[in-house]
Design a protein that fits this description.
It is built from two helices and eleven strands. By secondary structure, the protein is mainly beta. It has two domains: 73 residues, no CATH class; 94 residues, Beta Barrel (Thrombin, subunit H), CATH 2.40.10.
């Protein structure tokens, strides 16, 4: 399965699983629900053994050959990396042990141990250590966007390319 990222114009570039030819589609019809969308796209072209010279010819002839690819359409603007990093969050009163479940340049998903009641819009400070060569320590203020008893989806209140922890996150996401 492939993940494709939707651009600002609701367009996405998809590629054939066999011949790797690409085509761009309008993703608007798939954006009715929030979150990730799962679609199946059938690619048809001469490289895919149906005899037509192009995918356009195949579609016009309603060709039944071709290769189907299941694709997840992702709305996020930045890549999100799955991780399992220990850390902690704190509000004005308490500190809570957490595990960072995923991380991007603009936010993260956190598992809170033990579960606790947080509210969307609430600001916290998250601290964790990246498992990179430098064991970079990240301490950033976040705002909770979605809160369940044990899972928080948070956005960093600032993401400045010149801040050391943002640079560390950027390099970490590239590896």
């Amino acid at each position: 399965m492939q993940t494709a990222y939707i651009n600002d114009n609701n367009r996405v570039v998809l590629s054939c699983p066999r011949c790797k030819k690409t085509r761009e589609i309008d993703a608007t019809p798939y954006l009715k629900n929030s979150g990730q969308a799962r679609i199946a796209i059938k690619f048809k072209c001469s490289t895919c053994d149906c005899g037509h010279q192009s995918c356009k010819e195949c579609r016009e002839a309603n060709c039944s050959n071709g290769n189907t690819n299941i694709i997840y359409l992702e709305r996020r603007k930045f890549f999100r990396k799955k991780v399992s990093l220990p850390g902690h969050i704190r509000d004005r009163k308490k500190r809570f042990a957490v595990t960072i479940l995923n991380l991007s340049r603009t936010g993260l998903k956190i598992k809170v141990r033990p579960s606790h009641t947080f509210q969307p819009g609430q600001k916290l400070v998250v601290t964790f250590t990246l498992d990179d060569a430098k064991a970079s320590i990240v301490e950033k203020e976040v705002i909770i966007r979605t809160a369940n008893p044990d899972i928080l989806k948070c956005e960093f209140t600032s993401a400045q390319a010149f801040e050391s922890c943002d640079k560390a996150i950027g390099f970490y996401l590239m590896k």
